């Protein structure tokens, strides 16, 4: 009995313990999503699924761009009648007896057993084909070849002939000598007249394999010239010397075609500054394989109006023109699909791959290193013209050959040290399909697809992120040139000289225009809204669109396709008239632009709503290709998610990216920094959050912090992240690079040594020291994290707090341990030999890092001297945690205070200068104390008389910069009241506004705005660029000094006094109309979204009031379309709306 009682008690104890464990596990399961950010439905997966499969799932979308470039289906409706798919690519044998066999590696075997008769074979080397005899290949004396044994021919161009003494046949063979100790660097394969869509429909096997291999294909790539030479030379060469005399812009204000292919002077190909010449100087081996298609042609031979007839000196180490000159002479310059049992394209692709495969196999080094023994690299350019030049359908004959060779290269590891580009020079120009609606577009959208070595994205993470983002940006040929120069000159992490284009490894803004990308208007695919007349033909109904879109979205199980609804309001777009006309030059431009060209189809844009399978409402921006009647919609690219319901139920994250943002009502040129909640002793526990906020303060960039509440994460699960200009960006280094580009901020050292310091010491802090600290804290429990001074208070009270903290401790411990171990921290220990613990070793490692950082800082104010750089923000973010989050006797804290005091002083110095609100931030936990700086007693005016108006400019500036202020109204028609007398005392000129800042009194609106600009943080209204700054001031001064004074109250009163009732109105109307006309002329040359470019400037603070004045005096302002467009954009900004007279406290009710 006693035994049973004891056992029963034990069983009950076990059951109670088990129940407790189960309850704890249940609570853990409920609490884990709060920490991990996981959810039952992966919202960013929804966005990623809404992207076409052949494009990588990126955190950006092509619909974000200011340039609305068209995206076509692979087989557009307008091209259906022109597309032919080949069923068989085999070729009949002219000579069935094939005794010479060539293997895929380029070696040969002559098999005597295949012939009953005796025969012999010989090889002749082909040379020549240089100016002045560029069409003629010279042939050497024959050399006998071995029979029944493998051999290679160590020449580029040669002819193998076999004869039984009675008759013979010759076959051109192209081989490549095996060079053992080379480094293959860059390889380009170009298909003539091949658009991205054309490649997709006619090369399906290759396209699929390329996607699997990781090729990056540019979606917004736009050609810059008509035919091959003006499109490939901006990629392969620096600008021609012959076009230096031409202006960049032509008489129409557009990019001059002569900047790519000058017409006044013939170009000497030998003098062109090709990329391969730069590589030859570095000791590289070079390769130029140009399928000429006709003995009189060649990439830099044609036409004779532009080029001298060919190269006089062999341009590269390996040059294949002699082969093509001999072949096309035999063919009588008539291309054939087949040649003696073989596809011609197979012959032409052979030299592309033999050298690459052999070089790749013979070297096993990382792509960014040279072979130690030879110190050489390799550049290969290959241009396959004949299959696709005249007929786009013939491209399909190349698919099997390209697929087989890419597969062999991929499987052999030959691409481990190579950048590989597969591209088109332009789309189809010769075939009648180019006259179709989609043909005009495809002609201007060539294929551009690139593969980088696997090690690239790990070594250059920021550059690779930029590359993936730029897939969806407007790009052109000049950008590819800059990208190649980055690789050739190893410009990663360095200041790049200004070139024609932008490297794909740097951020390309969504605001980019064709002019900025060097794309002439007749080739530019940025679309325009259709005219009113054309729109009247369109049947505006959502039924057809909903049907097509619903079918498109049914594949996504995360969406409820039946819940789809779309707006009836469609905005219609189409390419520029010169594009729709297929203009290749600008001859008779004015006359042709005056013609009425009927539309063939449109691109429609509208907003739709759909619910996810968990009933979350999602708003989509949809673009479709639609016929003229509006009855047939096709969805070529999945919609962009522009909005999702705010705070979703059950703590789930809202849909992020693709346009769905945490801050849906965002302002332009304003950064929204999403970071963890505040703490008591340091603004943020995350060193990367502290780094970013400090950098934004240093750079003077306007920003607002957003608390992530442990639930808001980027699409990649990252915190911190930012949202800027409708785009979401993660990773602190990538954020800084992108924001620098968007805001034109330069905080980096100018010299290469300083840039190297930044890269090296940033890596030391972020990739080493911080993870040593995390490893130490992970192994010591780090109680601060869950204390009330840390994040403890965010986890509730009582049992809930206990279990929530337990789950978070486990999760964070695992995260920190895994990441620290991945960095190599904590895996090694000398304790077996020295008796030291792992913790001791980690402290020693951290102290060595601090020693190195301290030595570099020395007695300098900042790490790079007397001005702050990004490195200072990085170091502060990672060192501040040691000072403000450590236990009182922490070893590393003592090191910073005592052993390396300059580091502690640096932290205090940065805190004092850039964090004056530190204590208030930590005590209040307010995310945005920095936005609450005050200016008192601001003055403005509101009057009912027509002669004066509320001074918008100063108030807009105060609002833009988030400066708190008070206003005191004054009636300029009656200055006898208290405020009037006060104004007279402050400004005897009796003018407003007047600004009082402390003891300082300022008058004149432009002077006040510049004072605010120089003394307060927030958005910059004076552009960083000196020319843009001068333009902004010129426009503001024209308004303030040229228009405003002639119609103010004093002047109009005097005119009325001298010339009678009504004269003042005629006077004011005349001068304001003249001033606005002049202003329209100024702004039309500088405007983007705003007066000067796409950022708000001091000029924009003056525009709304002067347009209003014009209307008040009876001026027909519709004469000034640019001004009205700019004014409309300004009026949508919250700072402007808040400055309106109707929004002021003393505004009349009616």
UniProtKB/TrEMBL annotation:
Keywords: Phenylalanine catabolism, Tyrosine catabolism. Pathway: Amino-acid degradation; L-phenylalanine degradation; acetoacetate and fumarate from L-phenylalanine: step 5/6. PROSITE patterns: GST_CTER, GST_NTER. GO terms for molecular function: maleylacetoacetate isomerase activity. GO terms for biological process: L-phenylalanine catabolic process; L-tyrosine catabolic process. The keyword Ribonucleoprotein does not apply. Its cofactor is glutathione. It catalyses: 4-maleylacetoacetate = 4-fumarylacetoacetate. Signal peptide: none annotated. Its EC number is 5.2.1.2. InterPro entries: Alkaline_phosphatase_core_sf, DUF229, FAX/IsoI-like, Glutathione-S-Trfase_C-like, Glutathione-S-Trfase_C_sf, Glutathione_S-Trfase, Glutathione_S-Trfase_N, GST_Zeta. One of its GO terms (cellular component) is cytoplasm. It comes from the Eukaryota. Coiled coil: none annotated. Belongs to the FAX family. Belongs to the GST superfamily. Zeta family. This is maleylacetoacetate isomerase. The lineage of its organism: Eukaryota, Metazoa, Ecdysozoa, Nematoda, Chromadorea.
């Amino acid at each position: 009995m006693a035994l049973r009682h004891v056992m029963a008690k034990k069983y009950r104890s076990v059951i109670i313990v088990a129940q407790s464990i189960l309850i704890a596990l249940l609570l853990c399961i409920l609490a884990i999503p709060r920490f991990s950010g996981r959810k039952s439905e992966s919202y960013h997966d929804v966005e990623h699924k809404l992207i076409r499969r052949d494009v990588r799932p990126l955190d950006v979308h092509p619909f974000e761009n200011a340039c609305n470039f068209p995206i076509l289906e692979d087989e557009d409706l307008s091209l259906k009648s022109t597309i032919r798919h080949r069923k068989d690519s085999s070729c009949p044998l002219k000579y069935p007896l094939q005794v010479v066999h060539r293997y895929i590696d380029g070696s040969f075997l002559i098999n005597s057993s295949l012939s009953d008769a005796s025969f012999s074979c010989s090889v002749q080397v082909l040379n020549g084909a240089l100016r002045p005899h560029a069409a003629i290949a010279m042939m050497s004396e024959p050399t006998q070849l071995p029979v029944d044994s493998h051999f290679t021919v160590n020449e580029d161009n040669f002819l193998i002939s076999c004869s039984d003494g009675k008759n013979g046949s010759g076959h051109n063979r192209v081989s490549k000598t095996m060079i053992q100790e080379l480094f293959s660097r860059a390889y380009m394969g170009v298909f003539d007249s091949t658009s991205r869509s054309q490649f997709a429909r006619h090369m399906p096997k290759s396209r699929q394999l390329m996607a699997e291999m990781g090729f990056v294909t540019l979606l917004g790539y736009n050609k810059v010239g008509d035919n091959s030479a003006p499109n490939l030379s901006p990629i392969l060469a620096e600008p021609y010397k012959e076009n230096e005399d031409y202006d960049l812009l032509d008489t129409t204000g557009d990019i001059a075609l002569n900047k790519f292919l000058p017409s006044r002077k013939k170009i000497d190909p030998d003098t062109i500054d090709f990329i391969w010449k730069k590589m030859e100087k570095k000791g590289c081996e070079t390769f130029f394989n140009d399928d000429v298609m006709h003995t009189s042609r060649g990439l830099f031979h044609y036409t004779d109006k532009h080029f001298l007839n060919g190269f006089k000196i062999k341009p590269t180490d390996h040059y294949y023109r002699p082969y093509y000159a001999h072949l096309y002479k035999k063919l009588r310059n008539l291309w054939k699909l087949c040649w003696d049992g073989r596809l011609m394209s197979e012959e032409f692709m052979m030299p592309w791959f033999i050298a690459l495969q052999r070089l790749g196999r013979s070297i096993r080094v990382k792509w960014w290193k040279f072979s130690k023994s030879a110190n050489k690299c390799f550049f290969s350019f290959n241009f396959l013209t004949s299959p696709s030049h005249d007929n786009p359908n013939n491209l399909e004959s190349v698919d099997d050959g390209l697929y087989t060779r890419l597969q062999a290269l991929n499987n052999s590891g030959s691409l481990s040290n190579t950048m590989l580009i597969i591209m088109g020079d332009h789309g189809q120009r010769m075939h009648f399909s180019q006259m179709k609606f989609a043909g005009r577009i495809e002609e201007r959208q060539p294929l551009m697809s690139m593969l980088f070595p696997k090690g690239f994205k790990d070594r250059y993470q920021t550059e690779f992120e930029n590359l993936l983002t730029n897939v969806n940006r407007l790009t052109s040929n000049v950008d590819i040139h800059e990208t190649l120069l980055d690789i050739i000159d190893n410009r990663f992490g360095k200041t790049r000289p200004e070139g024609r284009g932008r490297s794909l490894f740097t951020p390309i803004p969504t605001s980019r225009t064709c002019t900025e990308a060097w794309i002439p208007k007749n080739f530019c695919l940025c679309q325009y809204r259709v005219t009113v007349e054309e729109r009247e033909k369109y049947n505006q109904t959502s039924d057809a669109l909903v049907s097509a879109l619903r079918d498109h979205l049914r594949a996504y199980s995360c969406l409820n396709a039946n819940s789809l609804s779309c707006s009836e309001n469609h905005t219609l777009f189409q390419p520029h008239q010169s594009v729709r006309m297929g203009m290749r030059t600008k001859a008779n431009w004015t006359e042709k632009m005056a013609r009425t060209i009927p539309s063939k189809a449109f691109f429609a844009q509208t907003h739709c709503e759909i619910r996810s399978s968990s009933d979350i409402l999602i708003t989509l921006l949809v673009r479709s290709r639609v016929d003229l009647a509006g009855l047939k919609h096709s969805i070529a690219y999945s919609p962009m998610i522009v909005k999702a319901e705010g705070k979703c139920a059950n703590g789930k994250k809202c849909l992020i990216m693709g346009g769905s943002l945490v801050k849906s009502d965002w302002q332009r040129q304003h950064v929204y920094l999403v970071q963890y909640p505040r703490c008591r002793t340091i603004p943020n526990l995350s060193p990367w959050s502290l780094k970013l906020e400090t950098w934004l303060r240093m750079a003077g960039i306007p920003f607002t912090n957003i608390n992530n509440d442990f639930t808001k994460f980027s699409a990649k699960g990252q915190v911190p992240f930012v949202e800027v200009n409708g785009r979401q960006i993660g990773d602190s280094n990538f954020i800084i690079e992108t924001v620098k580009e968007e805001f034109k901020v330069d905080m980096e050292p100018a010299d290469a040594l300083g840039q190297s310091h930044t890269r090296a010491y940033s890596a030391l802090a972020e990739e080493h020291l911080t993870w040593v600290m995390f490893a130490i804290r992970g192994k010591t429990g780090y109680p601060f994290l869950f204390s009330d001074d840390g994040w403890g208070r965010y986890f509730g009270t009582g049992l809930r707090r206990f279990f929530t903290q337990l789950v978070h401790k486990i999760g964070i411990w695992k995260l920190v341990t895994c990441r620290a171990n991945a960095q190599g921290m904590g895996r090694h220990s000398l304790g077996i030999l020295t008796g030291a613990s792992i913790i001791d070793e980690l402290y020693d490692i951290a102290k060595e890092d601090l020693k190195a950082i301290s030595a570099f800082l020395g007695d300098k104010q900042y790490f790079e001297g007397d001005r702050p750089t990004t490195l200072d923000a990085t170091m502060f973010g990672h060192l501040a945690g040691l000072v403000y989050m450590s236990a009182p006797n922490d070893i590393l804290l003592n090191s910073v205070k005592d052993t390396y005091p300059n580091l502690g002083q640096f932290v205090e110095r940065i805190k004092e200068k850039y964090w004056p609100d530190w204590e208030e931030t930590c005590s209040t936990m307010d995310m945005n104390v920095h936005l609450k700086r005050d200016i008192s007693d601001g003055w403005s005016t509101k009057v009912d008389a027509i002669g004066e108006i509320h001074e918008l400019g100063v108030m807009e500036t105060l609002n833009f910069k988030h400066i708190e202020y008070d206003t005191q109204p004054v009636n300029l028609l009656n200055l006898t009241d208290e405020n009037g007398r006060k104004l007279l005392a402050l400004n005897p000129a009796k003018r407003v506004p007047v600004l009082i800042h402390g003891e300082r009194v300022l008058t004149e609106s432009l002077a006040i705005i510049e004072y605010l600009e120089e003394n307060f943080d927030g958005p910059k209204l004076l552009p960083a660029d000196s020319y843009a700054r001068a333009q902004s001031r010129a426009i503001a001064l024209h308004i303030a000094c040229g228009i405003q004074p002639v119609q103010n109250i004093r002047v109009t009163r005097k005119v009325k006094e001298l010339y009678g009732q009504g004269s003042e109105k005629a006077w004011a109307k005349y001068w304001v109309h003249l001033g606005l006309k002049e202003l329209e002329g100024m702004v039309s040359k500088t405007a983007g979204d705003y007066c000067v470019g796409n950022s708000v400037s001091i000029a924009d603070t003056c525009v709304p009031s002067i347009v209003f004045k014009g209307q008040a005096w009876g001026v027909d302002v519709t004469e000034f379309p640019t001004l009205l467009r700019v004014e409309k954009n300004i009026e949508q900004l919250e700072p402007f709306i808040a400055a309106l007279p109707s929004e002021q406290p003393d505004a009349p009710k009616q």
